[in-house]
């Protein structure tokens, strides 16, 4: 049975649309995998020597054990955001005679082969080898290594539960934040007992039984959990929430773009993916904290200009780069209706401009860093509204990736959104504000830089009609391609 | 009303549609039948300028479809679910289409209220997004949306599929009424020979992209079609 599953899985992998097109993306992904794998191996080899050098009075294995918890925390974090949960199309399997348990065992077993599990392996395997070469006892090192691998598996299964169940998610989150808080404010160094525990794993090899038991019980909990949810009802019928039609007729005052604007509001409000984008764009607000707090960047105002543009531009860039794609599910409808592209684009532009304005208001706490920084944010906001918006819309017009609106995106899940055109179009978004600020700054002074950056935005607003017309032409020439691309099922 | 000349569509070297000449007069109810892959949906997509013709052209009310967009105000269609906006309720969807077609809320309400029978209480006031409706109910909403804004040409791809028997019968009444009393040109495609002969004045049979029969519907038409599709010579 498992053999058939694997063959199904393999076909699904090979025949997925993202795999079939774009050799460049494939190569990039493979390179990325090799890159990260390579880094892990080098780190693993270097780990021993680094610790030996930085903390010479402590045995490196003890130092590693002391800091191990941070590695596991990091692993948990990237897994939560990036690891795809194993999904299998269970519906067609339900009517054929396969034991339910077999399917679940297979699903869980599959996650063992996840790339993220190998990350730990690549890191600690070379480290263990180095230890052996240095003459550490083979029994301790060997079993310690196996214990670490089991810990990784534990995180793997824990991540599964965290993703599936809100209760587990909040429990873990509370525990984590509490521990980090206690640690940070020196109330209780929780990392110390954990370090001791890991060291015990090394010193008393028979303790390997603990992570193994833990792994078995987590596996069992997962098994139970999936089994209880493995019914047609859950897989087939979705929960339908009762909804009320929203009256947005007050928006009619926006005139001819009102129908689109109303629709876009609902689009964002009622679908998982755009909602996620909105949440993400909120995080951009904090981007400035990274730059403004560091002395090094104070000497590099071009970077500050770049960061200031990011503070207010989060929604603009994340939402804007997918502009026709948001409407991909019903693009044929739009194309057969009497829709002026200009109005359609103008509506999206309005949304983006409003989002920049809101972000700008929310960014007022940055006044703490002084008027200069805040002036940069203001100039960046103007640049965003006036120029960046059109660059982003232009880039979006070249991006023909269908989006499933009500499905959340996981990292790596739609690599086809990532293509050379996108990268090229992203460049001016970063370089332009830097250049616009830096050149007058160098030639005249700081204020001149600000004024030029801000003026560039004003110029963009003045020539709005011209820019929209240009973008409209891209839409018109690419119409058939776009219709065909959006019609493709993912 | 709709004149097709020398129209062909090729994907790579695979010819999927080739129509030398086809004229559909105003107010005709026109049926397109054919097996899977005969080119029905391709023809409708060309009519809506969703794909580009390899050769030839279609004129819709003297407007060249693939060059001008002036056919859009008087043409409407429901081809598949990609004509629905999943995250709107049926009412919101109707109003949106209405706004695009220059109708205000009360115009739309007046039109939609005529179809309460057809909806069978499953569309309006449901507090559900279109994406959560069943296939049949989605289709009902899509078909009625295609009637908004006084179109002169209505294109419906497989309107009877997925509908329950009661609704199929009501839909037949609606389509007949459109062509007969309002002078609207209605183009439908169907796999159901009985429905098509009931509704359409004229039936064209497509086979591998070419017109093989062009019939004015009469009492014998159904028999002739059945004979054709069962492979018997008439």
Describe it for me?
The complex is a heterodimer of chains A (490) and B (234). By secondary structure, chain A is an all-alpha fold. Chain A folds into two domains: 2-236, no CATH class; 249-487, no CATH class. In chain A, 76% of the residues lie in helices and 0% in strands. Chain A contains 25 helices and no strands. Chain A has helices at 2-15, 17-20, 23-54, 60-82, 91-94, 100-111, 115-133, 138-164, 166-184, 191-203, 209-228, 232-236, 258-270, 272-284, 287-292, 295-298, 301-320, 323-326, 331-336, 341-362, 371-397, 420-443, 446-462, 464-477, 479-487. Chain B has a single domain (2-229), classed as Rossmann fold (3-Layer(aba) Sandwich). In chain B, strands 6-7-8-3-9-10 form a six-stranded mixed sheet, with helices on both faces. Chain B has a four-stranded antiparallel sheet with strand order 2-1-4-5, with helices on one face. In chain B, helix 6 links the parallel strand 7 (153-157) and strand 8 (185-189). In chain B, helix 2 (90-100) packs across helix 3 (105-113). The two termini of chain B are 32 Å apart. The A-B interface holds A 238, 240, 242-246, 258-259, 262-263, 266-267, 270-271, 329-333, 335-339, 405-406, 480, 483-484, 486-487 and B 48-52, 69, 72-73, 75-77, 79-80, 82-89, 91-92, 96-97, 99-101, 127-129, 131-132.
Question: What structural keywords apply?
Answer:
heterodimer, A: 490 residues, mainly alpha, 0% strand, globular, B: 234 residues, alpha/beta, Rossmann fold, six-stranded mixed sheet, 33% helix
């Amino acid at each position: 049975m498992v053999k058939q599953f694997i063959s199904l899985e393999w076909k699904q992998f090979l025949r997925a649309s993202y795999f079939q097109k774009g050799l460049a993306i494939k190569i990039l992904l493979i390179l990325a995998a090799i890159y990260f794998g390579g880094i892990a191996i080098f780190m693993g080899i270097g780990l021993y020597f680094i610790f030996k050098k930085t903390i010479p009075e402590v045995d490196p294995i003890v130092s590693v054990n002391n800091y191990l918890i941070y590695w596991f925390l990091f692993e948990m974090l990237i897994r939560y955001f990036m690891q795809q949960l194993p999904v299998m199309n269970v519906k067609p399997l339900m009517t054929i005679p396969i034991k339910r348990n077999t399917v679940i065992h297979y699903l869980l077993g599959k996650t063992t082969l996840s790339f993220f599990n190998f990350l730990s392996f690549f890191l600690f395997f070379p480290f263990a080898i180095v230890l052996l070469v240095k003459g550490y006892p083979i029994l301790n090192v060997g079993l310690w290594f196996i214990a670490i691998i089991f810990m990784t598996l534990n995180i793997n299964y824990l991540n599964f539960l965290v993703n599936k169940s809100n209760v587990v998610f909040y429990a873990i989150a509370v525990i984590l934040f509490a521990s980090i808080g206690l640690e940070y404010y020196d109330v209780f160094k929780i990392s110390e007992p954990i370090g001791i525990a890991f060291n015990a794993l090394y010193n008393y090899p028979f303790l390997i039984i603990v992570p193994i038991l833990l792994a078995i019980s987590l596996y069992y909990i997962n098994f139970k959990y999936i089994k209880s949810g493995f019914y047609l009802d859950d897989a087939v019928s979705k929960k339908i929430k009762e909804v009320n039609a929203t009256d947005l007729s007050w928006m009619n005052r926006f005139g001819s773009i009102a129908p689109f604007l109303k629709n876009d509001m609902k689009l964002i409000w009622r679908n998982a993916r755009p909602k996620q984008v909105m949440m993400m764009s909120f995080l951009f607000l904090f981007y400035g904290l990274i730059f403004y707090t560091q002395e090094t960047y104070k000497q590099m105002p071009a970077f500050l200009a770049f960061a200031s543009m990011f503070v207010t531009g989060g929604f603009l860039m994340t939402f804007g780069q997918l502009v026709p794609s948001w409407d991909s599910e019903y693009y044929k409808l739009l194309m057969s209706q009497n829709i002026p592209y200009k109005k359609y684009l103008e509506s999206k532009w309005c949304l983006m401009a409003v989002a920049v304005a809101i972000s700008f208001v929310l960014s007022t706490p940055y006044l703490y860093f002084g008027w200069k920084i805040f002036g940069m944010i203001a100039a960046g906001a103007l640049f965003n509204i006036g120029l960046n918006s059109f660059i982003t819309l232009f880039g979006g017009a070249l991006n023909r990736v269908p989006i499933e609106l009500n499905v959340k995106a996981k990292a790596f899940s739609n690599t086809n959104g990532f293509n050379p055109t996108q990268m090229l179009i992203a460049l001016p978004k970063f370089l332009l504000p830097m250049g616009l600020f830096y050149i007058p700054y160098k030639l005249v002074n700081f204020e001149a830089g600000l004024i030029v950056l801000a003026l560039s935005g004003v110029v963009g607003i003045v020539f709005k009609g011209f820019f929209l017309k240009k973008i409209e032409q891209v839409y018109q020439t690419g119409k058939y391609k776009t219709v065909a691309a959006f019609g493709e099922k993912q | 009303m709709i004149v097709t000349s020398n129209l062909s569509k090729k994907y790579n070297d695979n010819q999927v549609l080739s129509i030398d000449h086809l004229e559909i007069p105003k107010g005709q109810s026109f049926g397109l039948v054919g097996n899977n892959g005969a080119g029905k949906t391709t023809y409708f997509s060309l009519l809506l300028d969703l794909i580009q013709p390899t050769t030839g052209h279609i004129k819709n009310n003297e407007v060249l479809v693939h060059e001008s967009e002036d056919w859009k105000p008087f043409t409407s269609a429901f081809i598949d679910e990609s004509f629905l906006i999943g995250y709107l309720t049926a009412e919101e969807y109707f109003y949106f289409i209405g706004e695009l077609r220059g109708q205000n809320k009360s115009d739309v309400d007046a039109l939609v209220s005529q179809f309460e029978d057809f909806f069978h209480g499953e569309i309006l006031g449901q507090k559900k997004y279109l994406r959560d409706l069943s296939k049949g109910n989605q289709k009902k909403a899509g078909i009625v949306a295609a009637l908004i804004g006084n179109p002169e040409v209505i294109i419906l791809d497989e309107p009877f599929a997925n509908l329950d028997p009661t609704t199929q019968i009501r839909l037949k009444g609606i389509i007949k009424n459109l062509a007969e009393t309002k002078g609207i040109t209605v183009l439908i495609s169907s796999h159901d020979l009985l429905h098509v002969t009931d509704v359409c004045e004229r039936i064209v049979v497509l086979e591998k992209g070419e017109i093989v029969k062009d019939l004015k519907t009469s009492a014998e038409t159904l028999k002739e079609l059945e004979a054709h599709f069962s492979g018997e010579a008439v």
